[in-house]
Amino acid sequence: MVTYGDAPTPQSVDSSWRGKILHGTLALEAGQLTGADVPPESYRPPQGFSVMIHLTDPGVAERMFADLANGGTVQMPLGETFWALRFGMLVDQFGIPWIINCGKSA
Question: pTM of the prediction?
Answer without folding.
Answer: 0.72
